[in-house]
Amino acid sequence: MSTTMPNLKGILPSRIWRARHDNAVWWWQQQRVKRAIERAFAAPVSLGLDREIVIEGGWPDAADPRAIVFAACDESYFHRFGQHLALSSAARSPSTRVHLHLYTPSSACLAKVNAMVERCGGRLTVSHEGPARDPFGRPMSFYFAAGRFAVASRMRREIAAPILMIDADGLVASDLAAGFAELDLVEAGFILQPDNAALYRKVLASAIYLGTANRGNVEEFFTRLSDGIGLALRQCGHYHVDQIGIHYALRWCESHRAGPSIANLPLKWSDYRFAADSLIWSAKGARKGRYVELLAEVERSF
Predict the structure, then answer these.
(1) Which of 98-102, 132-136, 288-292 bottoms out in mean pLDDT, i.e. has the lowest?
(2) Is residue 258 part of a domain?
(3) In sequence order, what are the beta bridge partners of 69?
(4) In this predicted model, what pLDDT tens digit does every residue of 23-39 receive, in sequence order?
(5) Percent of the chain predicted with pLDDT > 70
(6) In what order do the strands lie in the sheet with 97-103?
(7) Rg of the chain over CA atoms, in angstroms?
(8) Who wins on pLDDT, 13 or 249?
(9) Residue of 51, 84, 101, 217 with fewest CB within 10 Å of its CB?
């Protein structure tokens, strides 16, 4: 008599494990993030939490019109990914700029940064900050992913150029000039996935566009988004608050008829399939296994 093996994927404990491994945001955690976002967006004036950051190092020239690719990471991720993102941008998109923001780098790391800035010939700037606003007190991806929104908010307020915030484990695959030109009239852009059932997957945070059209409205939106994510981050939950926070921010703006016009960015800005005609390759999860191969291809051109 044959024995049929049970479908392990359908067993509840297995499903829970897979969801945890996938950094799921559970319903009670979603409500905490929702309340933080609503508090930030409903406030009579923005909290402006980004003004509390003590930023050191380099900063993009405020008057330079060249578009900026921006990413943030800790020292470990800088050595593994961030430095290669910067070099790929300088090599493949010479008419745009790249800015990296580092969390608590060592003096040795900053020395390497200085050499890279010189190598990139004016196309790379790097800022950094200490541990003061890290609620966890130790390296945590939850903080690194969410903390970048405050830096992006300050950048949008202080510099004239359009900004594309991406994950530090990306690689610039092509010249970005034409892509940025297509976004010239876009106020804000996200990779939207409305068909996903999970709320924390309805928006991808791997590519976010902060435009210059209707700039005052864009600045206000990203300031309040940064505030809401910052409030959620201070709760020290062991889950990612950025994507679910964006989802609730967009919902709040839609229901209140507020905020900038939102464009749905094409996946070419964060392509995990590594298509030859994409602009930025994104090495997420198991796909990091191809990173060395892709990196070699990029570095041959620099």
Answers:
(1) 288-292
(2) yes
(3) 98, 164
(4) 578 889 999 999 999 99
(5) 86
(6) 56-57, 124-129, 97-103, 68-74, 163-166, 203-210, 188-192, 262-264
(7) 19
(8) 249
(9) 51
Q: What is the DSSP string of 102-167?
A: EES--HHHHHHHHHHHHHTTTSEEEEEE-STT-SSSS--HHHHHHHHHHHHHHHHHH-SS-EEEE-
Helices 107-119 and 83-92 pack at an angle, to 10 degrees, of: 10
- Is the pLDDT at 184 greater than 90? The verdict is yes
Record the tokens describing residue 138, joined without a space.
Answer: 């130790």
In the chain, DSSP finds a helix count (H) and a strand count (E) of: 10, 10
Q: ∠ CA 75-77-80 to the nearest 5 degrees?
A: 110
pLDDT of residue 139: 87
Task: Give rounded-to-5 percent helix, strand, coil for the chain.
Answer: 45, 15, 35
DSSP 213: T
Q: In the prediction, which pLDDT does 208 show? A: 98
State pTM to two decimals.
Answer: 0.89
3-state secondary structure of 277: coil
Range of the domain at 181: 25-299
CATH number at residue 64: 3.90.550.10
Q: How many structural domains does the chain have?
A: 1
CA distances 4 to 1, 7, 14, Å, are 10, 9, 18
Q: d(Cα 253, Cα 221) in Å, to the nearest integer?
A: 9
DSSP code at position 101 = E
Mean pLDDT of the chain: 89
pLDDT at 210 over 70: yes
1 found inside a domain = no
pLDDT of residue 21: 43
Q: What is the dihedral of CA 126, 85, 140, 159, to 10 degrees?
A: 40
Backbone region of residue 161 per phi and psi (left: phi > 0; alpha: psi in -120 to 50; beta: other values): beta
Identify the DSSP state of 171.
Answer: E
What are the structure tokens assigned to 76, written together?
A: 């470990």
* Strand 188-192, strand 262-264: pairing: parallel
In-domain check, residue 245: yes
